[in-house]
Amino acid sequence: MAARNVSPNSNGNSDSGGENNAFIDQLKIQHLRNKTQVSLLTTQVNKPIMIPKKLKDEILNNLDSQLEDLLEDFCQEVEESNTHGSSHTNGEVKKTSSRDRELPDKVFVSRRSVLTELFEISHIQTLKNIFIAVLIIFSMNTILADFIEKGGTGSLSDAWQKHGFRLVIDLNLVYWAFGKLSIVVQIWVGMMFSTLLVYPCLYFWAISRPLGRAGLPDWLMLVAYIVYQIAFMAYPIKMLGEHQFPFASAFIVLLEQTRLVMKSHAFVRENAARALRYKPHSEQDQGPCPDFSCYLYFLFAPTLVYRDTYPRTNKIRWSYVVSNFAQVFGCTIYIYYVFYRFCVPIFQNFNSDHVTPKRMVIGIFGCTLPGVLILFIGFFALLHSWLNAFAEMLRFGDRLFYKDWWNSSHFSNYYRTWNVVVHDWLYCYVYKDIYNISHKNQTLAMSSVFFISAVFHEYILMMAFGFFYPILFIMFGTMGFGLMFVPKGSKNGRVLNIMMWVCLFLGMGILMCLYSMEWFARRNCSITTDSFLDYLIPRTWTCDVVL
Description:
Blueprint: H1 18-42, H2 53-85, E1 86-89, E2 92-95, H3 114-118, H4 122-151, H5 156-163, H6 172-177, H7 181-196, H8 198-208, H9 216-243, H10 247-277, H11 292-300, H12 318-347, H13 357-366, H14 368-393, H15 411-418, H16 420-437, H17 442-465, H18 471-482, H19 493-524, H20 533-536
Antiparallel strand pairs: 1-2
Helix pairs in contact: 1-2, 4-12, 7-10, 8-10, 9-10, 10-17, 12-14, 13-19, 14-19, 16-17, 17-18
């Protein structure tokens, strides 16, 4: 999950308007340029350079179709603005304000991910190759450093007998971070089974409730649903407290818990309203509850917004699935190398190297580069590779899991485009509901979205790390929310994009530095109190730190 801004400008699909249209046009033009370059390179040097007639016709046809599409989109936008912005009564035009408009719904269409499109451009593919080369260099650096440290004295055979395969590649930190996976699988099976029980309960209520307005059975169902969600949140917390999982295994449990909570709420939210509106023998009679197969598909589909059907692809490309899972594995090793080489050496001796304001500043700026690298790699692993692998296995057609957030010149657009999957859920089931309940109060709806998102982000970090240190909550809930109200600039988009990246670099540096300090402080510093306050008070404050 990521910080989200949800507003009626999201247009149901969370589109950011002109910026995304311009970005798509750039992709089309770049594809034409690539084809032209290939044709020119294949032409013999000693012959005059001639563009083939077939390619010339294709370029002209593509340009014509693009102009027609742009004109059609413009006319459609004008018609929609006239339709939504005014109403005709007795020949008079009555303008309606934005507060009187109904918020659009999420619409699923078949489309590929942005990076999938970009990787067809040779220049962008080269950037990916550079990241792979850096991973190889990181691997060589770590392997050589471990080899020299462990096998530098004595014979190589003695070192191999002592360390074995760890003489070359020491992945003890990875093994520890993903420890107790068998228990993690057991917890996941329990959570999945309880989530599957949502369907028969909702189905029984939907077919047995009296038709008409909400009555006592409906209120009892609502109470039972709330109790279920509370119990579902409490079960993993209890298991995490009993087994003391390392942070990677804890992250798996917490992320799956959050995903299943959002999935079950989306299914109940959509179909409870469907059951309440149900009228038998009507023209739109689809039954009070969908089939179980729809619910089962939704639980594994890479979306958090429920629909009975989604756009599907024709076939499964298993080579594409394997390549995406391989990329997830590579990104995991990548994050390990970044953290192991850049962060552990700085903070592992926190108890002996007291932190001063000078070293605090140096530590924050020293963590900016590894922090942003982890941001990039985590984004690529989860929002691109992982989701595309499941989308391919399930033939899920709509793969717009993110947009070109790196081009954002304002944080409002960044929040909408960084994680479209979570953004759509917040828009459909939080923003729209609060917007309608509060008589179309946009500020209240947006504030609620920020608060709920910040709470869940902090909950995941708190339970995974095993301590309460609300740095992310403070940064996101205060500064992040305040940046939403910074005026947008239309003429200095490049400068604003640079400033946004500066803020991201500094923010990731602060998070990486402070959370790493607290993590190692809780392992190196003595406990000052045995009460629950030790869980709430940062250990860095009580570890003889000179500030």
